[in-house]
Design a protein that fits this description.
This protein has 13 helices and no strands. By secondary structure, the protein is mostly helical. The two termini are 34 Å apart.
Length: 260
Amino acid sequence: AILSKKWKERMNGYKKLTTFLTNSNNYIDDYSKYLLLYPKLCNEANIAALAESLKVLPVLITHTTADDLNHLIELAQQWMKGLYTKGLTASRSSVKEQSLINLSLLVEYNCATLICQQALIYSQNTSWKIAHGTGILIDLLLKEFGKDVITIQLLQSIIVNLLAHSNGQVRSLGLSLCNHAYTWYGEEFRNIINETKIKATLLKDINKHFDQIHHSTDKVALKKVKYTTSHLNDANNNTTSTTKMNQSMEITFDIFNIYV
């Protein structure tokens, strides 16, 4: 059904695949039956079918074992374009939300470097929807993972890209992200952003905002990148996949609603 030319049949096929893998009593064998399909999950052309295909990803991600991490990273590389250019820009809010959930889960499962590299690239995209979606993602990851994932250099580069965009919504998001970056990095971020090629009048406004923001030196991230090769098995034994997915969804919906 997933290979059908009819979008309704593909949509139902994705639903059945999610249910099948979620309820599998022999996940490794059942997972291997559909290996050729997984790289294509984020390339679905129909928006309704895409909404269902994206729901397969959390099942694949949260069932990852230490031995499967390299394979997950390979899959993630093939998911990036679809998640950034289709998922984060979709007309349906549920598709955007699911894309954010998937990207956040991938960060937990050792794909942070890949996702940050792609974010830097897509923040420069001339499409305002892609640049805006990328900004929302970085804001989410900063809130969830803090300095563990979102470095000051990455923030500087992405914010400069957003502030230079031709679209006003993207520039506004860049200013908001600038303020959030200051709450994490304080005067260190003020110093580094003042060294960029941002217009002097805009820098003046940014610094005024910084003066009104409280920077807490004990700010703590909501989540940790704990699913690396060395910690993955222990983490899976202590936390159910459903709990991890629900926690990610709660945080994601909270930050997504700020921008819609």
